[in-house]
Amino acid sequence: MYLNVLLGMVGPWQVVILVVALLLMFGGKKIPELMKGLGQGMKEFKKATRDESEGIANPQKELASKSE
């Protein structure tokens, strides 16, 4: 429900204005670099949360790997 309210508030003109503002601020060449960094950060975050949840599910495995 909250997502519907949030998405309902963002229209196509707001997206266009946001894209134009980003292009003006960073330029066309810098945006792919920023998106690549954002993607790598998200990938590392997901890996860390997955590793952490596996450690909680299997504490013996985590202790064995730390002792080696």
In short:
By secondary structure, the chain is an all-alpha fold. The mean pLDDT is 77.
For the termini, the CA-CA separation is 48 Å
Unreliable runs: none
Structural class: mainly alpha
Total DSSP E strands: 0
- Give the averaged pLDDT, no decimals: 77
Radius of gyration: 20 Å
Oligomer: single chain
Largest sheet, in brief, is: none
Overall shape: elongated
Question: How many domains would you count in the coordinates?
Answer: 1
Number of helices: 4
Q: Which percent range fits the helix content?
A: over 70%
Provide a descriptive summary of the structure in words.
The protein has helices at about 1-10, 10-25, 30-55, 60-65. The chain is mainly α. It has one domain. The longest helix is centred in the middle third of the chain and has 28 residues, at about 30-55. It is elongated. The mean pLDDT is about 75.
List the topology elements.
Elements lengths: L1 H8 L2 H15 L3 H28 L1 H9 L1
Helix pairs in contact: 3-4
Notable traits:
4 helices; 0% strand; mainly alpha; 68 residues
